[in-house]
Design goal:
Length: 296
């Protein structure tokens, strides 16, 4: 009799566990899925190599997902163009954790409050060239420079460098300047390698990207200098963008609550600072504290 009761209790326990698992599974399946866009451009996201998972947005996106426990989260590698296209179709709840806001994009995406600021595009050249032609200067009029010089200039084909710069480059590409073009996911890295090997003289890139190249390529013998482009701001704000529908709006509202605390977290700004040179990092931190009105 005792054995019979033990068997009944054992079977009941298994049944209870099965029911609990079934309920848990059902609850998980009922959660809505957010598709997070993972941009394959280091160091925004670093998908390979020694620094895998240490990108500017890699840890940030984990924190954002943890702040949304009522959703299932899936990460998909896609280009910015693909991300915006998916949002415009309005078939999935897609979120882009490192988006730049434009009026055009607001037609099909909701944006959070700013979650980070990022240093803007720079003119990059070797230190020896800077000392010879630009010593003492930390900025450059790119339009005048290109018009008056025939230096080897490197760009990534079909990449947008921003509306103003794109307009200047469109004229240059039709002119007589020596323009070297690369393409694809590693196009900018190829240009950087050409720069330090003296095959091109200048290129355009963000300082946090070239800092990544310096670490990955491990070439300390050649120093590069970043010049501000006259007419551009020091930084731009970055946001989380999600599909513009009722579901996307709810996610944005929840993320705004998360970001209100996250921007105050020292780690939030250090994710960018670790990918900047010392001088750039110090200037960035000052700008960050002022932009987010943090006492210091």
């Amino acid at each position: 009799m005792r054995l019979f009761l033990v068997l009944i209790l054992f079977v009941s326990s298994l049944a209870s566990q099965a029911d609990s698992s079934a309920i848990s599974s059902t609850l998980e399946q009922s959660k809505q899925t957010i598709v997070w866009s993972i941009i394959p451009y280091a160091p925004i996201h670093i998908l390979e190599g020694d620094y895998k998972g240490q990108g500017i947005v890699d840890e940030y996106i984990i924190n954002a997902q943890n702040a949304l426990p009522g959703y299932l989260h899936t990460n998909q590698i896609m280009t910015p163009a693909r991300t915006w296209y998916q949002m415009s179709k309005n078939e999935q709840l897609v979120c882009y954790p490192s988006a730049l806001k434009t009026t055009e994009r607001e037609a099909f995406a909701y944006f959070t409050q700013p979650g980070l600021i990022t240093p803007v595009l720079r003119v990059v050249m070797r230190e020896d060239m800077w000392k010879k032609e630009f010593a003492g200067r930390d900025s450059i009029n790119i339009k005048e420079y290109i018009a008056n010089n025939k230096k080897n200039f490197g760009v990534v084909s079909k990449r947008s460098y921003g509306e103003e710069i794109d307009h200047i480059l469109s004229k240059v590409l039709r002119g007589e300047n020596d323009i070297i073009q690369t393409s694809g996911r590693y196009g900018s890295r190829q240009l950087y390698q050409m720069l330090i090997s003296e095959r091109i003289d200048i290129m355009l890139e963000y300082p946090w990207v070239t800092a990544y190249f310096e670490k990955v390529l491990k070439n300390d013998s050649i120093k590069v200098v970043h010049l501000m482009i006259e007419g551009l701001p020091k930084y731009t704000a970055a946001y989380v963008a999600c599909t513009r529908n009722d579901d996307g709006k709810k996610v944005i509202e929840a993320l705004d609550e998360f970001l209100a605390k996250e921007v105050l977290n020292i780690e939030n700004r250090q994710r960018m600072m670790r990918w900047l040179g010392k001088k750039e990092a110090e200037a960035f931190e000052q700008d960050y504290l002022e932009y987010f009105n943090i006492e210091h």
